[in-house]
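Fill in residues.
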């Protein structure tokens, strides 16, 4: 089983490019360098909120060759970065991951978060052997709640203002059938 996302994932509309050390370094250098390395326009709207996260997603301080745990979503036909998906190993259990996502404001409400997350979730279950995927979102973030429900997540807990969701392979097939 593959443990590292070392290749792009493709959907009907998106290319999900794993954040490599080279890409993280380009993100640290700024919007133009990042766009050049990723081979797509990187709009200021997305860069303002997400480029610093991409820049910090791989650091040599974590070891000589940290594994990518974030992928940048690029619209295949527009050649535009539209968001990113994070997939970190959980500290709670082996084969458990936490997923998070961000879509540029001008591309929201078009199904891109669901499409990008579906590709990553499929990869985690099928190639990595994930047993559980967790997701958290603010209780007031209704669009994110809807996205997580579309993806097949089940509400697991509600500590305060955060909803925590869970997805396992045994509940996923019912959604995909």
């Amino acid at each position: 089983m593959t443990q590292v996302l070392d290749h792009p994932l493709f959907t009907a509309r998106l290319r999900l490019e794993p954040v490599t050390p080279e890409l993280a370094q380009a993100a640290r250098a700024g919007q133009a360098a990042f766009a050049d390395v990723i081979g797509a326009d990187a709009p200021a709207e997305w860069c303002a909120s997400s480029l610093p996260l991409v820049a910090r997603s791989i650091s040599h301080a974590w070891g000589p060759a940290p594994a990518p745990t974030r992928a940048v979503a690029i619209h295949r036909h527009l050649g535009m970065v539209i968001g990113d998906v994070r997939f970190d190993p959980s500290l709670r259990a082996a084969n458990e991951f936490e997923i998070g996502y961000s879509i540029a404001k001008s591309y929201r409400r078009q199904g891109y978060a669901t499409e990008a997350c579906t590709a990553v979730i499929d990869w985690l279950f099928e190639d990595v052997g994930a047993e559980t995927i967790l997701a958290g979102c603010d209780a007031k973030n209704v669009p994110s709640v809807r996205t997580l429900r579309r993806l097949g997540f089940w509400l697991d807990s509600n500590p305060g203002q955060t909803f925590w969701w869970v997805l396992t392979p045994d509940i996923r097939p019912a959604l995909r059938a």
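The domain at 9-176 is CATH 3.40.630.30 (Aminopeptidase).
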